[in-house]
Design a protein that fits this description.
Elements lengths: L11 E5 L2 E8 L4 E27 L11 E4 L4 E5 L8 E23 L3 E2 L13 E3 L2 E3 L1
Antiparallel strand pairs: 1-2, 2-3, 3-6, 3-7, 4-5, 4-6, 5-6, 8-9
Length: 139
């Protein structure tokens, strides 16, 4: 990911709706009221599976995905295995299934997008607790 725009301590980080949010903190001189967010990237596409071998169509998987959750379209999931090797279009999972070509999947690819500014808070804040619920971020 790109570096956050201002180094800080005492900030709050909330993961919500495929994004990471950084709110407030202290830059060593000033208490901060800014908010920034970066998207948590994921891949979607189609695949087929025979046993534990998954072959994607038009995708590019990397070894960084080992340990990630592979989400099937029926809501079930599997864990991406490091061995045998993950190639550009083939990977192994820990669940043996037979799925015909054209099924859909979602997998977090382990990357974080660029940090972008968002609406500033009304006042600076440091060392807050934060959580997300019902479409809102709370401090």
């Amino acid at each position: 990911s790109s570096a956050i725009t201002v180094a800080r301590a005492g900030h709050t980080v909330i993961a919500y709706a495929n994004n990471l949010y950084v709110l407030g903190g202290f830059d060593g001189t000033n208490y901060l009221n800014d908010t920034q967010f970066a998207s948590l990237s994921y891949k979607t596409g189609t695949f087929q599976q025979s046993g534990t071998s998954v072959t994607g169509s038009g995708t590019s998987w990397s070894t960084a995905m080992a340990g990630a959750t592979f989400q099937y379209s029926d809501g079930t999931s599997a864990i991406v295995q490091a061995s045998p090797a993950i190639t550009g279009t083939t990977l192994s999972v820990n669940v043996s299934r037979t799925i015909v070509a054209g099924a859909t999947y979602v997998i977090l690819d382990g990357s974080v997008g660029s940090w972008m500014p968002s609406t500033a808070m009304p006042s600076p804040i440091r060392d807050a607790e934060g959580f997300a619920a019902n479409g809102y971020l709370y401090l």
